[in-house]
Amino acid sequence: MRHGKRINHLSRQTAHRKAMLANMASSLIEHKRINTTVAKAKALRMFVEPIINRSKTDSTHSRRMVFRSLRDKFAVQELFRSIGPKVSNRDGGYTRIIKTGFRPGDAADMCMIELVDFNEIYGADTTAKKKRTRRGGAKKKDEVVNPVAAAKDAVADATDSAKAAADKATDAGESDSSENKTDDKA
């Protein structure tokens, strides 16, 4: 029985599985996204997230621990130079898995795994969005007053424009009557 054994062996021996995950993690760090099967992506996520978490602190010990897992010094340099500082304010969830369909040859469930902070499409709006909570909370007084004040300003603007139009009409009427008076004198 396999009660409580959560690791997916991916139909490989231990050495082959570790080498494959190290190579996939190096490719993910280098290219910021890779295409693979869903099972491999889930195993890779469990493998690479602690490594990315370790890259937040740039120390010799952290570099050696990461190199022990990745076995690629260029991937370690990239991880500590560009990825570590960018994810330093994130508590977890460094990767995203997006399903892309099925592979034509064997109908394997395919996906794209990517680093969350390096996606230009999704990452662009995150700074502009306001952080939301699940609880509604009370509205601020400014938010309640602003629509009323805006409505009052709109009504005041409408009445001002109506008065201006009426003044122009009376001015036009006076100028017509003054022209009539000059015509009468002639």
Keywords:
3-stranded antiparallel sheet, 6 helices, mainly alpha, 186 residues
Largest sheet: 3 strands, antiparallel
> What ranges have pLDDT less than 50 throughout 5 or more consecutive residues?
none
Shape: elongated
According to DSSP, the number of beta strands is: 3
Tell me the Rg in angstroms.
33 Å
Separation, N- and C-terminal Cα atoms = 119 Å
How much of the polypeptide forms β-strand, as a percent range?
Answer: 5-15%
Helix-strand string: HEHHHEEHH
Give the proportion of residues in helices.
55-70%
Give the structural class.
mainly alpha
Mean pLDDT: 84
Biggest sheet, spatial arrangement of strands: 1-3-2
- SS summary, helix count: 6
Can you walk through the features of this model?
With 186 residues, the chain is mainly alpha-helical. The protein has 6 helices and 3 strands, in the order αβαααββαα. α1 (14-31) crosses α2 (38-54), α1 (14-31) crosses α4 (73-86) and α3 crosses α4. The protein is elongated, with a radius of gyration of 33 Å.
Topology (elements, then pairings):
Blueprint: H1 14-31, E1 33-37, H2 38-54, H3 60-70, H4 73-86, E2 95-102, E3 109-115, H5 120-123, H6 141-185
Antiparallel strand pairs: 1-3, 2-3
